[in-house]
Design the sequence.
């Protein structure tokens, strides 16, 4: 396949790996945070770590949209579905994320709530058209990549006069989250998380462009390379970061030039800003309250805003006590540092969101990488015995 | 061969509760539709139980419920699938399938013309395979309590002398063979699923594998394990073998055949073809010394044309299926948790 096969070429991978070994200075460590869950997935799915020298390390960041949604918002979605009797439409990954007391959308569905998995916002619109006597709510999550389709759905619903359709908006913004991580005490003061550079998101950047990263590359002195999702993209971008770090540069470079430009997709951006506006603050799982980091539906489109249309109760949402998802999302801990990992928390029985989503760091560690995890082998032996 | 012809022009109306009520309507449905198309001397005796002649040897029996959406898909339908699925379960025990049974659960309101298409498809699949459907059952459930048609098939077969195929015979050092490209069935189904329809030339690989198996066991009777990687795909089946036999596996990603269109569809949807269902493929474990000879036998059969040796059974206390990736890294090929879902972005 064009634009795929050439980015999985074994010989090329070997060449890039050799260049990385040659250029990575043995006396130092290179800590590269991949913000995006798609990169975490690619690193494990293709065994990219195997081809890296020991001193080039990947730190998994908070870029999985399912993982960063706080329990409270999920509890609200369950309540909207159950209390208001709506048809709640959601992307597949959200179905299994545990809320307070391990209650997920899939559990609510089994108990009778009308919750339907959709593949796109257009499917949700179709459900609204087909069920004119029911309220249909689209549970919108995701970064800048999934925001334009939500905007399209709202505009389309308006155009068609679909009065029974609304959106429970949870769209979040990448640059504010990266800034927040760099300002966190773990990075700034305590030094518990060392980040030398970032692999910038690819799909997100195809919408917002590479320009938004320029501010914090300059302000925080950290290089950013916008990287595609294929394994060779990740490796080439790591090499570009290593070169910048060695040369003391901190610029925004674009490895993913086949898709991303500096300006991004201006049409999508204008559509998004026509329908959405910034929230002054939004809670992220793992990062806490982050100012100006999420979007809400503008007043002009209020009729399609599920938050205005459906009341939710004040409630105390709770995560599983010992779940380390918040620390893992910030790169403070690795999945294997969590005592629930691989014991009570597995993809079959997820305690936290990082284990649910295929882009979550815990799920990636478990699914693709646990042969390297020393805690696993003795346990597997016990099971066999 | 005279293929049964559906009588769709005449077949109007839909299934109603009377078709399961034990009265005239049910008798007519059975004689006019099921018996007409599935006719054979044993079924035509009209008894509640089939009286069977069985050759000497070890009997193999397998049963499988078929629940699929959509009922009709490129390359097949629930009828042919219900025949192929069970034949393959019998065949991958190393057996020669002899007889099939079929149980239908029909939902009130299901169009009779569609039911006839399904029954004709079953009849054709069974005749092509040379395995008759010798007895069956029909029940009707109220509207809303079924999903059109559910079919359960049971297969009976006999294992040839000297053949002993069983999962626990997997041993470190054995070669892992695959009969052809993976993911065709699952992608064909997805392409027609509501909310996800997309244009593709991919057809389901649904097929009866017993003649391929017969050639394989005839040439290499010492074959250790045979399995058809259906739901959960290649990954689930290999993990099942590894866990049951207490072994590990090492695969080479570059040797696993995946059709270009299937690979493209999987890329687009964020799916891994290793986890996508197949209905006409088999996995085989045999001693390393027999691998090349067996591969040649498989390649000589139309259903094994694209066969390949894809890896080796290893000694591994953790029973992990590992794979060297396209780029030369190593990853675990784990069990799937729940259904594989397209990724968000």
Sequence:
């Amino acid at each position: 396949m064009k634009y795929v096969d050439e980015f999985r070429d074994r010989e090329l991978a070997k060449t890039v790996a050799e260049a990385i070994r040659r250029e990575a200075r043995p006396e130092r460590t290179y800590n590269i945070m991949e913000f995006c869950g798609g990169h975490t997935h690619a690193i494990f799915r293709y065994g990219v770590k195997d081809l890296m020298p020991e001193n080039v390390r990947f730190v998994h960041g908070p870029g999985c949209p399912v993982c960063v949604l706080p329990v409270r918002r999920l509890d609200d979605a369950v309540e909207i579905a159950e209390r208001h009797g709506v048809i709640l439409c959601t992307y597949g990954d959200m179905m299994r994320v545990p809320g307070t007391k391990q209650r997920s959308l899939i559990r609510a569905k089994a108990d009778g709530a009308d919750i339907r998995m959709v593949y796109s916002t257009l499917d949700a619109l179709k459900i609204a058209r087909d069920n004119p006597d029911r309220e249909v709510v689209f549970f919108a999550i995701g970064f800048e990549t999934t925001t334009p389709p939500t905007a399209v759905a709202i505009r389309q619903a308006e155009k068609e006069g679909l009065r029974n359709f609304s959106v429970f908006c949870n769209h979040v913004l990448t640059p504010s989250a990266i800034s927040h991580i760099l300002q966190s005490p773990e990075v700034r003061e305590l030094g518990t998380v060392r980040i030398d550079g970032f692999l910038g998101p690819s799909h997100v950047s195809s919408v917002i462009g590479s320009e938004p990263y320029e501010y914090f590359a300059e302000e925080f002195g950290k290089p950013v390379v916008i990287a595609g999702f294929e394994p060779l993209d990740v490796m080439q971008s790591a090499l570009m970061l290593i070169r910048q770090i060695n040369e003391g540069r901190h610029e925004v470079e674009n490895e993913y030039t086949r898709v991303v430009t500096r300006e991004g997709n201006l049409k999508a951006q204008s559509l998004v800003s026509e329908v959405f506006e910034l929230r002054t603050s939004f809670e992220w799982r793992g990062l806490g309250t982050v100012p100006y980091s999420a979007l809400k539906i503008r007043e002009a489109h209020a009729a399609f805003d599920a938050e205005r249309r459906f009341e939710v109760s004040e409630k105390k949402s709770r995560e599983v006590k010992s779940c380390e998802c918040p620390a893992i999302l910030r790169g403070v801990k690795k999945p294997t540092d969590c005592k629930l990992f691989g014991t009570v928390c597995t993809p079959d029985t997820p305690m936290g969101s990082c284990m649910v989503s295929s882009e979550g760091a815990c799920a990636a560690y478990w699914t693709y990488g646990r042969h390297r995890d020393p805690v696993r082998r003795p346990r597997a032996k016990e099971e066999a015995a | 061969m005279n293929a049964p012809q559906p009588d769709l022009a005449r077949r109007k109306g839909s299934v109603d509760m009377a078709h399961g009520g034990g009265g005239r309507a049910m008798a007519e449905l059975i004689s006019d539709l099921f018996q007409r198309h599935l006719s054979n001397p044993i079924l035509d005796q009209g008894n509640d139980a089939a009286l069977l002649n069985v050759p000497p040897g070890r009997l193999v029996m397998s049963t499988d419920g078929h629940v699929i959406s959509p009922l009709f898909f490129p390359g097949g339908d629930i009828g042919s699938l219900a025949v192929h699925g069970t034949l393959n379960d019998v065949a991958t025990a190393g057996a020669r399938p002899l007889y099939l049974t079929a149980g239908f659960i029909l939902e009130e309101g299901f169009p009779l013309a569609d039911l006839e298409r399904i029954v004709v498809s079953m009849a054709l699949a069974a005749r092509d395979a040379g395995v008759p459907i010798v007895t069956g059952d029909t029940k009707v459930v109220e509207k809303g309590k079924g999903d059109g048609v559910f079919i359960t098939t049971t297969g009976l077969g006999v294992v040839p002398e000297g053949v002993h195929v069983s999962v626990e015979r997997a041993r470190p050092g054995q070669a892992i063979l695959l009969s052809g490209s993976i993911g065709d069935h699952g992608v064909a189904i997805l392409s027609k699923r509501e909310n996800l329809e997309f244009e593709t030339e991919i057809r389901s690989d649904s097929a009866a594998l017993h003649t391929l198996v017969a050639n394989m066991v005839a040439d290499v009777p010492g074959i250790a394990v045979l399995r058809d990687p259906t739901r959960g795909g290649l990954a689930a089946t290999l993990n099942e073998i590894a866990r049951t036999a207490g072994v590990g596996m090492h695969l080479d990603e570059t040797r696993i055949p995946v059709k270009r269109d299937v690979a493209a569809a999987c890329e687009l949807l964020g799916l891994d073809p290793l986890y996508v269902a197949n209905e006409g493929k088999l996995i085989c474990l045999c001693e390393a010394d027999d691998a090349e000879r067996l591969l040649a036998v498989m390649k000589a059969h139309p259903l094994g044309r694209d066969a390949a040796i894809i890896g080796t059974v290893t000694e591994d206390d953790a029973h992990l299926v590992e794979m060297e990736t396209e780029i030369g890294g190593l990853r675990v090929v784990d069990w799937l948790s729940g259904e594989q879902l397209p990724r968000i972005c």
